[in-house]
Amino acid sequence: MSGGVEILVRVADIEQATATVRRFTLAPLSGEPLPVYSAGAHVVVTMDDDGHRIRNPYSLISRAQDGSHYRIGVLKTPNSRGGSIYLHEKVCEGDELVITMPVNLFPIVRTGRKHVLVAGGIGVTPIYAMAEELRAASAPYEIHYAMRDASCGAFADELVEMHGDKVRLYRDDAQEVIRVDAILPHQPLGTHLYVCGPEGMIDAILAGGRKAGWPVENLHSERFLAPMGGAPFSVALAKAGITATVRSDQSLLEAIEEAGVDAPYLCRGGACGQCETRVISADGELIHNDHYLSDEEKASGAKIMTCVSRLKGRELVLDL
Amino acid sequence: MTTLSDIKSRPIYAGLKVDEYARRHLVAAEGEGARAVIEAFSMAPEALDRTTILYCPGGSAGQDHETALADLAPDLIHVAPSIETLLVRLKGMLNTATMGTRLYATGTEGFIGQVVAAAVGFGVDHHSIFTEHRGSLARRVQCVHCKGMTDNVTATPFTCSHCGLTLFVRDHYSRRLGAFQGVCVDAEEPGVIPPAEELYK
Ligand SMILES: Cc1cc2nc3c(=O)[nH]c(=O)nc-3n(C[C@H](O)[C@H](O)[C@H](O)COP(=O)(O)OP(=O)(O)OC[C@H]3O[C@@H](n4cnc5c(N)ncnc54)[C@H](O)[C@@H]3O)c2cc1C
Ligand code: FES
């Protein structure tokens, strides 16, 4: 519940978009229209895998005009602890899932004069929604979408169909790479860039943007960060008076939730800041994996983002 | 009494520094702002052949800052007779500028505000504009009653230069207008006007 209001949905349709990507159409159980959201938003999907609760954020690809459904696209991740595998292998049409209200940490800057959308692989999901919103608003935009090979481009055909020559596709297998140095310099003043994809790609595009003299205010990114595993450690929740073990395949937030404490979260991807928690003491080294805290805050050791960060050591005492 | 820095909506001017990554520098300066431009750009002479300076002497007329700016030898310098003409020229440049252009604004607060408001109209994020306040602390104030703008307001209350009402200068800054708000001070009891305080000189 600490992710905010929850919405019960039924899986109305499952489409195998490529060998590794499935798209799910989610309809509200209540029959009430699903909330309107701005492009770039995601929901957190709660899954119950035989009593093992999994919560993963997924970007919203689209919403039916009448609010009768949302669509999400999920990549089957190798070495998954469960979330994406569960959605690929266990979820059937007609099944029920719980989602949170949409949260947007990757919105379009409406005052921008033009928008350059850059996607890599499954990072296309929020970009797909943004492109549609910009088309509907008749705003100037262009799309650059990189994928492994033609069979991976689940969204490519649809993007081309909807956005025509505004789309450029790049295929890794044809050695086609997104040339930031060619795309960025000639954009009109007031252009904003949005990138979502693998870490390395995001870093390269952002670095290219700075090199082309773009202000940081015009460069936007979203990382599909998943909690990283690590050695197990113990967590003591001072206010609740509970001590629990964070297993190696579990995030700190998941262990806190499993212990029965309703801790805050929104993105579960180290970006929103909602799960920020005060560290009372740490017997070991904090491993900060988020993109929220500043370097100084990370170094101070006073706070931790429970959704993606952990302790390398014996015990962590939190103000929870 | 609140001091100027206590005002939440008042913008923060971090000071000019040359963006080493920018491929083009577009500098709008007024009055004493010329000194800030000279200080910043003489530290980064390699940037000057990609720099355009638009300068309005304004309150510093006669001090010949324009010659000192020309001595920097930027790619282009244009000295405008008034802020209005400078802004027309600036907007023409913003319209055709490409990303990689860094905008700088320096001079009085009223001037910086007008440059920022013009740039925001071209999709520029105001945080990305490098600004430095120089010269008088005079404010540019919009009368909330007649909407007329009065420049160089140094005391509160003051007389609106358009409708003649006596206006109290509120600490509310509109980024869109690049101006503070002036509200009638004797609306309740006409003629009861507190003594003017010199605040922003
Ligand atoms: C804002 C946001 C939006 C997102 N949108 C989408 C989307 O639209 N589509 C989409 O497919 N995904 C999206 N994601 C990613 C998604 O939430 C999941 O992270 C992803 O589906 C993988 O989940 P999983 O449970 O299958 O894998 P996880 O078990 O979370 O594993 C992810 C990776 O972490 C590593 N890992 C995890 N645990 C361990 C461990 N104990 N030891 C070693 N390595 C480990 C694995 O190598 C694995 O590849 C989004 C993420 C964020 C933050
Ligand atoms: S829940 Fe968003 S940063 Fe942790």
Automatic annotation (TrEMBL), chain A:
KW Secreted (keyword) present: no
Keywords recorded for this protein, A-Z: 2Fe-2S, Flavoprotein, FMN, Iron, Iron-sulfur, Metal-binding, Oxidoreductase
Domain of life: Bacteria
InterPro entries: 2Fe-2S_ferredoxin-like_sf, 2Fe-2S_ferredoxin-type, 2Fe2S_fd_BS, Beta-grasp_dom_sf, DmmA-like_N, FAD-bd_FR_type, FNR_nucleotide-bd, MRET
Domain FAD-binding FR-type: 4-109
Gene Ontology terms, MF aspect: 2 iron, 2 sulfur cluster binding; metal ion binding; oxidoreductase activity
The protein's required cofactors: FMN
Domain 2Fe-2S ferredoxin-type: 233-320
Coiled coil: none
PANTHER family linked: CARNITINE MONOOXYGENASE REDUCTASE SUBUNIT, NADH OXIDOREDUCTASE HCR
The protein's name: Oxidoreductase
TrEMBL record, chain B:
Domain of life of the native organism: Bacteria
Name under which the protein is recorded: Uncharacterized protein
InterPro entries: DmmA-like_C (IPR048037), DmmA-like_N (IPR054582)
Dimethylamine monooxygenase subunit DmmA-like C-terminal domain location: 140-183
Molecular function terms from GO: 2 iron, 2 sulfur cluster binding; metal ion binding; oxidoreductase activity
Keywords: 2Fe-2S, Flavoprotein, Iron, Iron-sulfur, Metal-binding, Oxidoreductase
The organism of origin for this protein: Hansschlegelia quercus
Domain Dimethylamine monooxygenase subunit DmmA-like N-terminal: 6-129
KW Oxidoreductase (keyword) present: yes
Keyword flag Flavoprotein: yes
